[in-house]
Amino acid sequence: MESKEISSPLSTHLEELRSYLLLPFIINVIIMIMIISFASPLITEILDLVDLELEQLSTYSPVEFFKTKIYISFVFSIIFSMPLWLISIYNFSKPGLTSNESNNIRFTFVGGFSLFILGCVVGLQFVAPSFLNFILSNNDLVVENLSVYETIKIIISTIIFTGLLISTPIITLLVNRIVSNRKEIRKYIYTFILIIAIVATPKPSMILNLIFLLSFVFIAEITLFAVRRVNGS
Fold it and tell me: Which residues lie across from 182 on neighbouring strands?
């Protein structure tokens, strides 16, 4: 009599995933609460880094100030706890990975996160100030100044966008290694790029969405071109 392999139900996998993600979630919440306690000087420090002062921005209400503190605390807590999230997801998926896939994913996590942090630093020091200067340059046409919340959101979105853009080659290399069907590579890469463009666009508009989307596509295509030249294909 042949024995049949019985797969685990979906609820079992979800419960297992929950157990792996519980610790990073708790750490994330703790970090968020800690950041909220000193969010006010952090907001001022971020504005100083991009050469802006509170006097240059419109006055905001206590509700908007609280919303700004929550937003900045949430984003920074995610960034600080990201290594723990990645490790937990990797540990959950490790039993189903081949040795080659496991090595590729570990390389991507380490290299991608390192480049992401580097990109965030570049975004804070160079890209965000230039972008804000571009937005605020036509002062005679501006009817109302940006609020503190809008400004902080633009700065953080620009930082995240720059970090993701610089780490795009690592993601592209991972997809190129683990996807066996060459025709399917661009489908996965472009889906990833589209999600990033929607999430990390600094200022929602059709033109900016297109610019950032094309930036990711350009980096991904350059990476694929370089890989194929190296492999001789």
Answer: none
